[in-house]
Automatic annotation (TrEMBL):
The keyword Transit peptide does not apply. Signal peptide: none annotated. This is Iron complex transport system ATP-binding protein. The keyword Glycoprotein does not apply. Gene3D superfamilies: P-loop containing nucleotide triphosphate hydrolases. It comes from Deinococcus reticulitermitis.
Length: 263
């Protein structure tokens, strides 16, 4: 019997500006599963993530978190279950790294934006330390954000999201700014967390990375063009239809390689 989804969107229609950006998408995300969302620029990937988080108003459809309508969840409880790392997230430049990561523990827990609604505990401290360690950011935890490189900031953003100890982690292009070593580290880390039960949904542009997910959702013009295992989705036909590029797909050492033939 399959597990119920942590987060589920049914019949989602979302407008961005004056045009429809997501058109009739169904998507469900489980614990212990790594889903890659792929598709060309403007396909609606970020808009879909934002809609699933309740950050973009729905024109039609419904999002349910653990079986309950998203709108019925208090904001703080919702952000403890589902953490989000936005594309190009900007962090407060004068804030120290550890304090930024600590924000992940209390998202939405501030009354009138000023007064914490619950005391800071040892469990909070331990979760922050663990998130710093897992992202290899603890060694500069006392530095200010303004003193970090783009890749280091990206890892601090990830640490902030992880500090919430969510059931599901939504990441929008998390490998932006990361060098090859940290990209592979991130992937290894995510795989390890997924094995421990975390659900991960990542918007990825690198199809070779997407090929290492459990499941791939290919968006094209706001609709799901294909969904399934990497081998089912990452076919020359699907990639030609969505990206307009001819590719060949081969297997090397048990992994799919996508090689563009044009150009
Ligand atoms: N604020 C906005 N106002 C108007 N149109 C928007 C807005 N945000 C997004 N769009 C449009 O909605 C569509 C989907 O955008 P979205 O950012 O979801 O795509 P994406 O697949 O994440 O793209 P990318 O790979 O370039 O990040 C695009 O056509 C985009 O131009």
């Amino acid at each position: 019997m399959s597990l119920p989804p942590i987060l589920e969107g049914r019949g989602l229609h979302v407008r961005a500006g004056s045009s429809p950006a997501v058109r009739g998408v169904d998507a469900a995300f489980q614990a212990g599963e790594f889903t890659a969302i792929i598709g060309p620029n403007g396909a609606g990937k970020s808009t879909l993530l934002r809609a699933l988080l309740g950050l973009s108003p729905l024109e039609a459809g419904e999002v349910r978190l653990e079986g309950r309508a998203l709108a019925a969840w208090p904001r703080a409880a919702r952000s403890r279950r589902v953490a989000y790392l936005a594309q190009g997230e900007t962090l407060p430049p004068d804030t120290r790294v550890r304090d930024v990561v600590s924000l992940g523990r209390g998202a939405g827990d501030w009354k009138w934006g000023l007064i914490p609604t619950r005391p800071w505990t040892e469990a909070d401290e331990a979760a922050v330390t663990a998130a710093l360690e897992r992202t290899d950011t603890r060694r500069f935890e006392t530095r200010r954000v303004a003193e970090l490189s783009g890749g280091e900031r990206q890892r601090v953003s990830l640490a902030r999201a992880l500090a919430a100890q969510p059931a599901l982690l939504l990441l929008d292009e998390p490998t932006n700014h990361l060098d090859l070593a940290y990209t592979l580290d991130l992937l290894r880390y995510l795989r390890c967390e997924v094995a421990g039960g975390l659900g991960v949904v990542a918007v990825l542009h690198d199809l070779t990375l997407a090929a290492r997910a459990d499941r791939v959702l290919l968006l094209h013009q706001g609709q799901v063009l294909a969904e399934g295992t990497p081998a089912q989705v990452l076919t020359p036909e699907h990639l030609r239809a969505s990206y307009g590029v001819r590719v060949s797909v081969t297997e090397h050492a048990g992994r799919l390689l996508i090689i563009p033939e044009d150009g």
